[in-house]
Amino acid sequence: MEHNQTQEQLKNSTLILVLGILSIVTCCCYGVVGIILGIVTIVLAQKATAIYAASPEMYTGFQNVKIGKILAIIGLVLSVLYVLATIWAVMTFGWEAINDQELMQEKVQEMMNQ
């Protein structure tokens, strides 16, 4: 790197980190929000990684991209698991039981006594 050349922040590196964190935090919103944020974050991270790989000496902030991508993958997995658990609960107990706590307790008791 030449002395007169300055490094610049990698585009969207902070955004990627924030979205990665949000994908984990929002995985409990029926999983849908976490899935969307996780996919968007992974796509942005792939683009930023390609830019960084072309000339790594010109950019800073690649650590944020790597961490954000890892968090997005974790958030995506958690969100998919939450969606699958929600689908299982609806198929097992029914939508009415999900919305009615007393009915849900009855259904769980029936399931436990079998």
Question: Gist?
Answer:
This protein is mostly helical and 114 residues long. The protein is built from five helices and two strands; from the N terminus they run βααβααα.
Order of helices and strands: EHHEHHH
Question: Percent of residues in beta strands?
Answer: under 5%
Which radius of gyration do the C-alpha atoms yield?
Answer: 21 Å
Decide which structural class fits the backbone.
mainly alpha
Q: Which descriptor suits the 3D outline?
A: rod-shaped
State the helicity in percent bands. over 70%
N-to-C CA distance: 71 Å
Number of helices: 5
Largest sheet report:
2 strands, parallel
- Low-confidence stretches are none
User: Biggest sheet: strands side by side, in what order?
Assistant: 1-2
**How many strands appear in the DSSP assignment?**
2
Mean pLDDT: 90
